[in-house]
Amino acid sequence: MKKKLMSVLLAGTMVATLAACGTTGTTSTTTSDTAAQPEAQTETQTETQTETQTDTTATTEAAPAATETAEAGAVRLLNGKPEINDQMQALAAKYNEETGNTLVVETIGGDTNASDELKKMYQADNMPDIFVIEANQAANWDGMLADLAGEEWTNKTGFELTDASMGTIGFPYTVEATALGYNADILAAAGVDPASLTSPDAWKAACETLDSKKDELGITAVFGWCAEPTNLGWSSGTHVFGQYLDAGLKADDTTYIDLLNDGGKIDEARMKNFAEFIGMMNQYSDPALLIDGTYDNQVAGFKEGKYVFITQGNWCVTSPSDVSFECGFAPYAFEDGINTIIAGPPSYWVAYKDGNVDGAKAFFNWCAGDSAQNILVNDAGLVSPFDDCQYEAVNPFYKSMKSYIDAGNYSGWHTMLKKDGLQNQTCNVFADYAKGKLDADGFVSTMAQVISSYYAQ
Amino acid sequence: MGNFSTGRKIASFGSLILGLVLLIAGLALSITGAGDLILFTMNIGGKATPIIFGRGIMCVIGVILLIVGLYLFPTLKHHRAIINFIFLFPLLFAFLVTVIIPLFLGIGYSFTDWNGIKMTETVGFYNYTRMFKQPAFLWSILLTFLFVVFNMILVNLVAFLLALLCTSKIKGLGFFRAAYFLPNLIGGIVLGYIWQFIFSQVVTKFSGTYSMLSDTKTAFVAIIIVYIWQYAGYIMLIYITGLNTIPGDVLEASSIDGANAIQTLFNIKIPMIAPTITICTFLTLTSAFKQFDVNLALTGGKGSVQFLGSYIANGTEMLALNIYTTAVINNDYALGQAKAVLFFIILAVVSIIQVRISNKKEVEL
């Protein structure tokens, strides 16, 4: 009997130890979270016991050592750009050094999509205080994001994200631009003035000139344009498609995105002009890249001077040492007089309403300041969205971007407001057009059908 | 039954009751979202630190006490059954948590407008009617069935031929067996990327056209090729085992009777390994149904096709990938769940048929 009891006790201890070990393991990942929730809301109080609402799991007491490391007021930030993870860690260290506050940066890397990971974090009750969203995801988080209106940094930028029901919710951490990036040296050698490329006719003439001087200029094709849908669907379906929505429009003009989000309607006349412009790009592209290419081939070809134009944005060439020539942006002038590039923050940092909002606000104000911008601009290679930032971005496209932004010739990233997943539909239409399965009219009618049926689902 | 001491009875009932109370309390705290129980507040390092009796610990202690109570339960008649239950409990519990509960939660979600973050209302069968109105989804179902049929035949054919080769008397048998089996050890995603490179960078050099993957029909063929390449080696091993079980005396007798190789194959070998063929057919059937990783890595489901009068942009997307894109990429989790429920029903039916047929065969032997 005693032996039996003993063995049961031993088994029980083993199970308990295992459980404790398991839970300690999970607390270490949520360390900052437990400390970031000091405002345990004492809502339900009974006479003898106090039940508190905390974000902590049942294991707080199992890992006291872990909780000591993060002070109250620590802020957790979910970074969606793995390429700047090191700089973000440096930023966190600087923040701690200057203010004494703690910022914990977690990076979602590679193919894992931040919005995906956030859903898991939300289900696990493990939300970071600051996380990254794209503009059209704001609706998913309706009522869960903090209103940042009136914060000091909002006076220094025009790029913050505002939402009809939640107010000012998004902190812009970078500005990105997309249009047709060009190699200024080749254009100069061919005698083409990029500033003149503001009408379809000017484009056509420039393409003919460049194409006829291919051997002389040492280029493979005029455009480094890739319509391959499997891996580069985001480029054609989101970015190039975005030019239909925004090219030539002022940054706050939402004419075509409103039309699109009204049940998937398109302006057929505008789409037709757009289709003809894309047709011209298809015609003067490297056929090997156009249908089977990869992002790496496309960017490498541009960097090596094999293509005059590239259909990417300022993210494709980030360091001046990558290229031996001057870079700039030319507009997708598929209608006369289009002279804008798309520029703005493609994604934003937002503060989770039930998280450490004050800590997040403090961090945002500091982040808009000089020392933070120094790291983000000079080390991470981002382009500052703040007016008073004294640092010139190192990005080779920066000069061109700035000239468009200063002149007010920039359009918004309204392509981020289209229905989730639409790019996976439209990129196939681009691919079929590139393969010659569709002509310009077929492109327009197929686009119209694909978009409206996707919105109807 | 009077031969149990009062102490044991008290210990048993006491721990049963206490365990039950703790378990229910812990679950109640979790379900109502009330948080943890603060026993008292202690002054540690100048800060008031609440000493918490967590809801998780509460549940664990509750369960342990319940088990102890059951173990000590004053009965001789049911003691063996109780012990059996206690030993099975960890497995049953894990099965419940990882399979049964998610299954029912998933079915529940399919009746709501859940978007992965929150749900505002239940929508009845709306998701189920909606999914059958999507030509893209119907195309995915059709494509999956096509894929299954093609694969069931081709994988088995190729695997059987390889097995014949690997049971014949050629040199380097071990090498061939290992070489054919090796692709199965490479994960589907990696395999997909390797073949993507082969199709778009290597094959195009010889064919002079653009990649097979950029056209829906040829891309579908490409997926089948890669799948056969991956799976045939595995099925081959099963066939080899089958072929090796054929008694030598039967083969010897047939050769004495003057049967040639083809007659031996069709009249002796194939009938003798009929059960192996059934097993392999069903293995390829269910795994082809669930095809996801190669599909994702190779084409991502892209490709255009005219179907039911409309242009469909997911020409090579099979059922499993369609569910994934619906939920994760298009952010329509509830619809994805509804599709997953249908997927579950299809797979369940296939599996039940499989079990029935296998059982019949076993009886016949």
* Helicity of chain B, as a percent range: over 70%
Note the gap between the termini of chain A: 67 Å
Q: Identify the overall geometry of chain B.
A: extended
Rg from alpha-carbon coordinates of chain A: 26 Å
**Major β-sheet annotation of chain A:** 4 strands, antiparallel
Which CATH class of the largest domain in chain A?
Alpha Beta
Q: In one word, what is the shape of chain A? A: globular
Largest interface: A-B, 55 and 58 residues
What does this structure look like?
The complex is a heterodimer of chains A (457) and B (365). Chain A has 457 residues and is an alpha/beta fold. Chain A folds into 2 domains: 5-175 and 345-390, Periplasmic binding protein-like II (D-Maltodextrin-Binding Protein, domain 2, 3-Layer(aba) Sandwich), CATH 3.40.190; 181-342 and 414-456, D-Maltodextrin-Binding Protein, domain 2 (3-Layer(aba) Sandwich), CATH 3.40.190.10. Helix content of chain A is 45%, strand content 12%. In chain A, the strands form 4 sheets. A 4-stranded antiparallel β-sheet of chain A has the order 4-13-6-5. In chain A, helix 4 runs antiparallel to helix 15 (370-379), helix 9 crosses helix 17 (422-435) and helix 17 (422-435) packs antiparallel against helix 18 (440-456). The longest helix of chain A has 28 residues, at 2-29. Chain B is mainly alpha-helical. Chain B is built from 14 helices and 4 strands. Chain B has helices spanning 6-32, 55-71, 79-109, 126-132, 135-167, 173-181, 188-207, 216-244, 248-256, 261-272, 274-289, 293-298, 319-329, 333-364; strands spanning 36-44, 47-53, 305-307, 310-312. Chain B has a two-stranded antiparallel sheet. A two-stranded antiparallel sheet of chain B has the order 3-4. In chain B, a hairpin with a 2-residue loop joins strand 3 and strand 4 (310-312). In chain B, helix 4 packs across helix 14 (333-364) and helix 5 packs antiparallel against helix 11 (274-289). Chain B is extended, with a radius of gyration of 29 Å. The mean pLDDT of chain B is 87. Strand 1 (50-52) of chain A pairs antiparallel with strand 1 of chain B, so a sheet runs across the interface.
